[in-house]
Each structure stands twice: as C-alpha cells, then as structure tokens.
Design a protein that fits this description.
Blueprint: H1 3-33, H2 35-38, H3 42-67, H4 70-88, H5 93-116
Length: 130
C-alpha cells in the first residue's frame, strides 16, 4: 500500500474522530469551569474544529490521489462544507452531526477503495500479511 494513502486514511479518521469528540468535551469543560470562563476560548475552539475538518478533507484528497474514486471525495467535500456551515451558523447540529458521520463514512470508504486498488504481490501469492 502506498504510504501517502495510509497517511490520507489516518488523517481523515483522526481528524473526523477528534472533531466528533470536541463538542461534548467543550460542554464538559464549560460545565466544570462555568460558561463565563470558557467564553474567552470559544472562538479559538471553533477555529480548531474547522481546522480539523479541513485536515480531514486534505486526508481525503490524499486518498483520492491513490484510488481515483470521485464519490468518496464528493462526500468528503459535502460533509466538510456541512460541518463548517453548521459551526458558523450558530452551532446548527442538523448540519454538523450528519457532516461528521459523512466524514467517518468517507474514511472507511477510502480505506476500502485503497485496499481494492492495491497491486497484487509480484510472486502471484494473493495473501499479504498485515
């Protein structure tokens, strides 16, 4: 498997997972320390979330270069756009959560497509140890 495909898949999975986990974590931190203390870091948190979404999109672009399937890339672009719109539209969860699920689906889809497009070993043996 190509190293850039592995990096693309890993980047997409990590970034999508971290964005998914940041919203409840931000709620817990706000509840522990009070909304007043948390409010000064609010805009920075939103920028970090958007950066992670863009990182997931970059990972999908790297994976696309390896398998050349357009549908996972289109789903990644749509999911990233939905999350970024949801973050900027008063934290509209009706856009954010489906977008996060879409990024997770894209990461799995990219992983499957990357494995499908691998070249078989040169000795003709179809078994490749992990």
């Amino acid at each position: 498997m190509n190293k850039s495909n592995n990096i693309g898949n890993a980047t997409t999975v990590i970034a999508a997972s971290v964005v998914w986990a940041m919203i409840p974590a931000a709620g817990v931190v706000a509840a522990l320390f009070g909304p007043r203390n948390f409010s000064r870091y609010e805009s920075g948190t939103f920028y970090i979330m958007q950066g992670l979404v863009l990182l997931a999109l970059v990972g999908s672009l790297i994976s696309y270069r390896g398998h050349r399937k357009v549908l996972p890339l289109l789903l990644a672009i749509g999911s990233a756009a939905a999350i970024i719109y949801g973050i900027n539209a008063r934290l509209d969860v009706y856009y954010m959560f489906p977008g996060m699920v879409g990024l997770l689906v894209v990461s799995l889809w990219n992983s499957i497509e990357t494995r499908r497009t691998e070249d078989p070993p040169e000795d003709g043996n179809q078994y490749t140890p992990a």
